[in-house]
C-alpha cells in the first residue's frame, strides 16, 4: 500500500483542525480534472458528516499533459491563497471548470474581492509555480499517478468514491488511530 511521503504540515491548505482531527484526508487534485470536480461534493459531504473529526487537505497535482490549463488554475488558487482566499478560489475554479484563461481568472479574482493587479502580476511572473511543483513532486514520491488521489491518515485510499465507502474507510482509520498509544500517556 502506498504511503504519503510528505507529512501534512502548516504549509498545506487544510480545512479542520489537524491536531484535533481523528482522520486526515489528503487529496491530490487537478482543477481541470472532471473526476476531481465530481469528487468535491463528496469531500464536502464527508466534512459535514464528520465535522471536527476530519481534517481535509488539498495538494496540487496538475496533469499538464492532459489538462493544458491545470497549472495556471493551480497557480491562480495559490495567488488567491496569498490574499487569504484559497478555499473560495478552489470552489470557484471547480464551479467554472474549465474556464481558466487569463481574463476569466482575473474576473474570478475580482469576484472574490482580491487585489486583481497583484493577482495578475503573480500569475504572469510565476510566483507560485514552485509551490505547485513542490506539491506535484510530493505526490510523485507518494505514488500518485492520477487525480483525484486520496490518502487517509497517510495510507493511500484506492476504494470507491462513494460516500458510504469513504466514510467506512475514514471511520476505520479513526478507530485505528484512537487505539494507538499516544506520546505522553
What's the pLDDT, averaged over the residues?
Answer: 94
Q: N-to-C terminal Cα separation, in Å?
A: 29 Å
CATH superfamily: Glutaredoxin
- Domains, number: 1
Spatial sequence of strands, sheet with the most strands: 1-3-2-4-5
Give the SSE order as H and E letters. Answer: EEHEHHHHHEEH
Features:
13% strand; single chain; alpha+beta; 48% helix; Glutaredoxin; 7 helices; 5-stranded mixed sheet; 185 residues
Structural notes for this entry:
β2, α1 (34-50) and β3 (54-60) form a beta-alpha-beta unit. The chain has one domain: Glutaredoxin, CATH 3.40.30. It has helices at residues 34-50, 70-81, 86-95, 102-111, 116-125, 129-141, 163-179; strands at 13-15, 23-29, 54-60, 149-152, 155-157. The longest helix has 17 residues, at 34-50. It has 185 residues and is α+β, with helices and mostly antiparallel strands. α2 (70-81) runs antiparallel to α3 and α2 packs across α5 (116-125). Strands 1-3-2-4-5 form a five-stranded mixed β-sheet. It contains seven helices and five strands; from the N terminus they run ββαβαααααββα. 48% of the residues lie in helices and 13% in strands. The protein is globular.
Amino acid at each position: 500500500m502506498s504511503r504519503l511521503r510528505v507529512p501534512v504540515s502548516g504549509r498545506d491548505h487544510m480545512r479542520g483542525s489537524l491536531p484535533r482531527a481523528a482522520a486526515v484526508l489528503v487529496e491530490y487534485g487537478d482543477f481541470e480534472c472532471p473526476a476531481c470536480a465530481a469528487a468535491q461534493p463528496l469531500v464536502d459531504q464527508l466534512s459535514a458528516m464528520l465535522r471536527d473529526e476530519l481534517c481535509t487537505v488539498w495538494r496540487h497535482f496538475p496533469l499538464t499533459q492532459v489538462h493544458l490549463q491545470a497549472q495556471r488554475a493551480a497557480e491562480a488558487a495559490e495567488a488567491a491563497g496569498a490574499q487569504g482566499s484559497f478555499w473560495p478560489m478552489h470552489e470557484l475554479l471547480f464551479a467554472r471548470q474549465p474556464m481558466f484563461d487569463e481574463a476569466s481568472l482575473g474576473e474570478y479574482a475580482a469576484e472574490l474581492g482580491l487585489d486583481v493587479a497583484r493577482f495578475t502580476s503573480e500569475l504572469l511572473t510565476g510566483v507560485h509555480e514552485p509551490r505547485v511543483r513542490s506539491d506535484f513532486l510530493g505526490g510523485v514520491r507518494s505514488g500518485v499517478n492520477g487525480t483525484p488521489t486520496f490518502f487517509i491518515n497517510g495510507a493511500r485510499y484506492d476504494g470507491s468514491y462513494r460516500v458510504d465507502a469513504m466514510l467506512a474507510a475514514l471511520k476505520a482509520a479513526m478507530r485505528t488511530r484512537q487505539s494507538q498509544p499516544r506520546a505522553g500517556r
